Sequence to fold (222 residues):
Amino acid sequence: MTRNWTSNNHSFLRIGISPSLVNGLPSTSQNQVFGKIPVSRGYNQSRDFNVVFQHDTTLSQSAVNQFRFQYARRGLHFGFSQQPGGSEIGVNIPGFAYFGREPYSTVDRIERRTQFTDTLAKTWGHHTFKFGADANLVQLRSARLRSSSLISAANVNFGGLAASTFSSQFGFPSDLPGLTGAQAYGLGIPTTYIQGIGNSNQPFDNSLLGFSARIRGELTAS
Fold:
Protein backbone atom coordinates (compact mmCIF):
# COMPACT_ATOMS: atom_id res chain seq x y z
CA MET A 1 0.00 0.00 0.00
CA THR A 2 1.36 3.43 -0.96
CA ARG A 3 0.23 6.89 0.06
CA ASN A 4 1.22 10.33 -1.23
CA TRP A 5 0.71 12.70 1.69
CA THR A 6 2.05 15.75 -0.12
CA SER A 7 4.15 16.35 -3.18
CA ASN A 8 7.24 15.93 -0.99
CA ASN A 9 6.15 13.09 1.31
CA HIS A 10 5.44 9.53 0.25
CA SER A 11 4.85 6.40 2.34
CA PHE A 12 4.85 2.70 1.62
CA LEU A 13 3.49 -0.15 3.77
CA ARG A 14 3.71 -3.89 3.17
CA ILE A 15 2.47 -6.74 5.36
CA GLY A 16 3.32 -10.36 4.61
CA ILE A 17 2.14 -13.65 6.13
CA SER A 18 3.56 -16.96 4.96
CA PRO A 19 2.75 -20.26 6.73
CA SER A 20 4.46 -23.48 5.65
CA LEU A 21 4.18 -27.15 6.58
CA VAL A 22 6.49 -29.82 5.13
CA ASN A 23 6.30 -33.50 6.08
CA GLY A 24 9.16 -35.97 5.82
CA LEU A 25 11.76 -33.22 6.02
CA PRO A 26 15.06 -34.43 7.49
CA SER A 27 17.73 -32.34 9.11
CA THR A 28 20.83 -31.42 7.13
CA SER A 29 23.00 -33.85 9.08
CA GLN A 30 24.09 -37.44 8.49
CA ASN A 31 23.56 -37.25 4.71
CA GLN A 32 19.91 -38.25 4.89
CA VAL A 33 18.50 -38.66 1.39
CA PHE A 34 14.99 -37.33 0.76
CA GLY A 35 13.94 -40.37 -1.27
CA LYS A 36 14.76 -42.67 1.63
CA ILE A 37 12.94 -40.68 4.30
CA PRO A 38 9.38 -41.74 5.26
CA VAL A 39 6.71 -39.14 5.91
CA SER A 40 6.65 -40.33 9.53
CA ARG A 41 10.28 -39.22 10.00
CA GLY A 42 9.48 -35.64 10.92
CA TYR A 43 7.96 -32.37 9.83
CA ASN A 44 8.87 -28.70 9.65
CA GLN A 45 6.29 -26.01 10.34
CA SER A 46 7.01 -22.30 10.09
CA ARG A 47 4.90 -19.17 10.34
CA ASP A 48 6.42 -15.99 8.94
CA PHE A 49 5.07 -12.50 9.55
CA ASN A 50 6.71 -9.26 8.43
CA VAL A 51 5.87 -5.56 8.26
CA VAL A 52 7.82 -3.02 6.20
CA PHE A 53 7.17 0.73 6.38
CA GLN A 54 9.06 3.30 4.33
CA HIS A 55 8.71 7.06 4.21
CA ASP A 56 10.45 9.25 1.63
CA THR A 57 10.79 12.98 2.16
CA THR A 58 12.03 15.41 -0.47
CA LEU A 59 13.75 18.10 1.56
CA SER A 60 14.79 20.20 -1.42
CA GLN A 61 15.59 19.80 -5.09
CA SER A 62 18.96 18.33 -4.12
CA ALA A 63 18.20 16.45 -0.86
CA VAL A 64 16.10 13.36 -0.17
CA ASN A 65 15.65 11.47 3.10
CA GLN A 66 14.47 7.87 3.27
CA PHE A 67 13.34 6.22 6.51
CA ARG A 68 12.52 2.52 6.72
CA PHE A 69 11.21 0.31 9.53
CA GLN A 70 11.02 -3.46 9.38
CA TYR A 71 9.70 -6.05 11.81
CA ALA A 72 9.85 -9.76 11.05
CA ARG A 73 8.87 -12.77 13.14
CA ARG A 74 9.31 -16.47 12.44
CA GLY A 75 7.80 -19.21 14.56
CA LEU A 76 9.55 -22.49 13.78
CA HIS A 77 8.72 -26.01 14.89
CA PHE A 78 10.79 -28.96 13.77
CA GLY A 79 9.50 -32.12 15.36
CA PHE A 80 8.84 -35.80 15.04
CA SER A 81 5.66 -37.00 13.39
CA GLN A 82 2.63 -38.18 15.34
CA GLN A 83 2.09 -40.94 12.80
CA PRO A 84 2.82 -44.57 13.77
CA GLY A 85 6.55 -44.99 14.37
CA GLY A 86 7.25 -41.26 14.38
CA SER A 87 8.06 -41.12 18.10
CA GLU A 88 10.15 -44.32 18.18
CA ILE A 89 13.92 -44.30 18.50
CA GLY A 90 15.62 -42.98 15.38
CA VAL A 91 17.31 -45.59 13.19
CA ASN A 92 19.73 -44.55 10.45
CA ILE A 93 21.04 -47.02 7.88
CA PRO A 94 23.06 -44.92 5.41
CA GLY A 95 22.39 -45.96 1.84
CA PHE A 96 19.33 -48.01 2.78
CA ALA A 97 16.74 -46.32 4.99
CA TYR A 98 16.06 -43.79 7.76
CA PHE A 99 13.02 -44.29 9.96
CA GLY A 100 11.76 -43.63 13.47
CA ARG A 101 12.14 -40.32 15.20
CA GLU A 102 14.16 -37.51 13.68
CA PRO A 103 17.12 -37.38 16.10
CA TYR A 104 17.41 -33.59 16.06
CA SER A 105 13.81 -32.91 17.03
CA THR A 106 12.19 -31.28 18.85
CA VAL A 107 13.07 -27.68 17.96
CA ASP A 108 10.71 -24.87 18.99
CA ARG A 109 11.98 -21.35 18.55
CA ILE A 110 10.86 -17.82 17.76
CA GLU A 111 13.05 -15.47 15.75
CA ARG A 112 12.40 -11.71 15.77
CA ARG A 113 14.10 -8.90 13.86
CA THR A 114 13.45 -5.19 14.42
CA GLN A 115 15.27 -2.81 12.09
CA PHE A 116 15.42 0.96 11.65
CA THR A 117 17.20 2.50 8.67
CA ASP A 118 17.59 6.14 7.73
CA THR A 119 19.43 7.47 4.66
CA LEU A 120 20.05 11.07 3.61
CA ALA A 121 21.18 11.86 0.07
CA LYS A 122 22.44 15.34 -0.87
CA THR A 123 23.74 16.61 -4.21
CA TRP A 124 26.28 19.41 -4.48
CA GLY A 125 27.29 20.27 -7.99
CA HIS A 126 28.54 17.10 -9.66
CA HIS A 127 28.85 15.16 -6.40
CA THR A 128 26.28 13.17 -4.45
CA PHE A 129 26.78 12.55 -0.73
CA LYS A 130 24.86 9.78 0.99
CA PHE A 131 24.84 9.17 4.74
CA GLY A 132 22.99 6.40 6.52
CA ALA A 133 22.41 4.65 9.84
CA ASP A 134 21.11 1.16 10.45
CA ALA A 135 19.97 -0.26 13.80
CA ASN A 136 19.11 -3.96 14.12
CA LEU A 137 17.86 -6.05 17.01
CA VAL A 138 17.76 -9.83 16.43
CA GLN A 139 16.17 -11.96 19.15
CA LEU A 140 15.99 -15.73 19.49
CA ARG A 141 13.61 -17.33 21.96
CA SER A 142 12.40 -20.85 22.65
CA ALA A 143 8.68 -21.37 22.55
CA ARG A 144 8.97 -23.72 25.52
CA LEU A 145 11.49 -25.69 27.55
CA ARG A 146 12.53 -28.79 25.69
CA SER A 147 14.64 -30.72 28.22
CA SER A 148 12.26 -33.71 28.25
CA SER A 149 12.21 -33.84 24.45
CA LEU A 150 16.01 -33.86 24.32
CA ILE A 151 16.31 -36.62 26.91
CA SER A 152 13.91 -38.88 25.02
CA ALA A 153 15.59 -38.28 21.66
CA ALA A 154 17.94 -41.07 20.65
CA ASN A 155 19.62 -42.11 17.44
CA VAL A 156 21.13 -45.47 16.47
CA ASN A 157 23.35 -45.73 13.39
CA PHE A 158 24.01 -48.96 11.52
CA GLY A 159 26.93 -48.88 9.11
CA GLY A 160 29.13 -51.33 7.29
CA LEU A 161 31.40 -53.50 9.43
CA ALA A 162 34.66 -55.00 8.19
CA ALA A 163 35.42 -58.68 8.74
CA SER A 164 38.42 -57.70 10.88
CA THR A 165 35.99 -56.35 13.48
CA PHE A 166 34.80 -59.89 14.22
CA SER A 167 38.09 -61.67 13.67
CA SER A 168 39.85 -59.58 16.33
CA GLN A 169 37.02 -59.77 18.87
CA PHE A 170 35.65 -63.26 18.36
CA GLY A 171 38.37 -65.12 16.49
CA PHE A 172 36.42 -65.41 13.22
CA PRO A 173 38.43 -66.04 10.01
CA SER A 174 39.72 -62.75 8.61
CA ASP A 175 38.84 -63.71 5.01
CA LEU A 176 35.08 -63.57 5.69
CA PRO A 177 33.16 -60.81 3.91
CA GLY A 178 32.14 -57.75 5.92
CA LEU A 179 28.63 -56.69 6.76
CA THR A 180 26.60 -53.99 5.04
CA GLY A 181 24.58 -51.51 7.04
CA ALA A 182 21.37 -53.46 6.36
CA GLN A 183 22.98 -56.72 7.50
CA ALA A 184 24.29 -55.06 10.67
CA TYR A 185 20.75 -53.82 11.37
CA GLY A 186 19.35 -57.32 10.89
CA LEU A 187 21.88 -58.70 13.36
CA GLY A 188 21.29 -55.83 15.81
CA ILE A 189 24.90 -54.56 15.75
CA PRO A 190 24.94 -50.73 15.71
CA THR A 191 28.05 -48.67 15.06
CA THR A 192 27.10 -45.59 17.10
CA TYR A 193 24.44 -44.47 19.58
CA ILE A 194 23.62 -40.80 20.20
CA GLN A 195 21.58 -39.58 23.18
CA GLY A 196 20.58 -35.97 23.79
CA ILE A 197 20.38 -34.63 27.34
CA GLY A 198 20.05 -31.25 29.01
CA ASN A 199 18.11 -28.06 28.47
CA SER A 200 18.33 -26.41 25.06
CA ASN A 201 16.53 -23.20 26.01
CA GLN A 202 19.25 -20.60 25.36
CA PRO A 203 17.72 -17.25 24.37
CA PHE A 204 19.94 -14.45 23.15
CA ASP A 205 19.81 -10.92 21.72
CA ASN A 206 22.07 -9.59 19.01
CA SER A 207 22.15 -5.78 18.72
CA LEU A 208 23.74 -4.28 15.61
CA LEU A 209 24.40 -0.62 14.81
CA GLY A 210 25.98 0.55 11.57
CA PHE A 211 26.81 3.82 9.84
CA SER A 212 27.68 4.47 6.22
CA ALA A 213 28.92 7.36 4.10
CA ARG A 214 29.41 7.45 0.35
CA ILE A 215 30.50 10.10 -2.11
CA ARG A 216 29.76 9.76 -5.79
CA GLY A 217 31.07 12.23 -8.32
CA GLU A 218 30.92 12.83 -12.05
CA LEU A 219 33.91 13.86 -14.12
CA THR A 220 33.39 16.71 -16.58
CA ALA A 221 35.57 17.53 -19.57
CA SER A 222 37.05 21.04 -19.68
Remarks:
- The longest helix spans residues 163-170.
- The longest strand covers residues 43-60.
- Residues 16-153+196-217 form one domain.
